[in-house]
Amino acid sequence: MKVRSADGSYGRLKLCARSTFYSRLALHGLRLFYYENLIIGDVVAKPGRIAVLERVQDLREQHEIDLAIMNAENLAGGFSVTPSLCEQLFASGIDVMTSGNHIFDKKEAIEYIRKQPS
């Protein structure tokens, strides 16, 4: 997949990992399944949220994405998440959000995470 970076340059993702993964599956005689994944790094504060909200659905359609994953640790003002922001991003097409230690910076994030299916 061709992706555009913040400085306007383009790069390619996944080609090396894809061929290695297929080789391992073929060696073990397993049935091959192919998934298109979109993995978004650290989304920081409002500029990052806006970029994801505006583009994730287009990217999913254009590249036939099966699973969209993003790091949400710095989503709300540069640290943690809020329930409303998470719901907006899930509604826009994000399937999974990952995090790190900053996720615990807002108390409402802890309760929201507890209520989510595991």
Report what the structure shows.
The protein has a domain at 36-115. The chain is built from four helices and five strands, in the order E-E-H-E-H-E-H-E-H. The protein has helices at residues 15-27, 45-63, 83-92, 107-115, and strands spanning 2-4, 10-12, 37-42, 67-71, 96-98. Strands 3-4-5 form a three-stranded parallel β-sheet, with helices on one face. The radius of gyration is 16 Å and the shape is globular. It starts with a strand and ends with a helix. Mean pLDDT is 77; it is low at 1-7 and 9-25.
Please give a handful of descriptors for the protein shown.
globular, 43% helix, 3-stranded parallel β-sheet, two-stranded antiparallel ribbon, alpha/beta, 4 helices, 118 residues
Layout: helices, strands, pairs:
Blueprint: E1 2-4, E2 10-12, H1 15-27, E3 37-42, H2 45-63, E4 67-71, H3 83-92, E5 96-98, H4 107-115
Parallel strand pairs: 3-4, 4-5
Antiparallel strand pairs: 1-2
Uncertain stretches of 5 or more adjacent residues: 1-7, 9-25
Please identify the structural class as seen in this structure: alpha/beta
Q: If strands are numbered along the chain, what order do they take across the biggest sheet?
A: 3-4-5
What's the overall geometry?
globular
Could you give the distance between the termini?
30 Å
What would a concise description of this structure say?
The chain is of the alpha/beta class. The protein is 43% helix and 17% strand.
